[in-house]
Backbone:
C-alpha cells in the first residue's frame, strides 16, 4: 500500500492524524536533521500499522515534508 504523508517535525508530541482521503499528517518530536525525523516516522508508522520497521519504506521525499511511503503488508 502506498500512502502520502505530511510530516511536521519539532512537534511537542508524536502523533499520527489520519485524513479523510486516506493520507496521514504525522507530527514528530525529532528535528529534520541527519535523518532523525525519517527514522522516527518509520518507527511511528510501524507501530501504527503493527508491522516491523523493515516493512515501512520512504520512497520519495526524504528531504521534504511531503513524503510517499510504501507499507508492505504481512
Residues:
Amino acid at each position: 500500500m502506498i500512502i502520502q504523508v505530511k510530516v511536521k517535525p519539532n512537534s511537542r508530541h508524536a502523533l499520527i492524524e489520519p485524513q479523510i482521503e486516506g493520507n496521514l499528517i504525522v507530527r514528530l518530536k525529532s528535528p529534520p536533521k541527519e535523518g532523525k525525523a525519517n527514522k522516527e516516522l518509520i518507527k511511528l508508522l510501524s507501530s501504527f500499522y503493527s508491522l516491523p520497521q523493515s516493512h515501512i519504506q520512504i520512497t520519495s521525499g526524504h528531504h521534504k515534508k511531503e513524503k510517499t511511503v510504501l507499507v508492505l503488508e504481512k
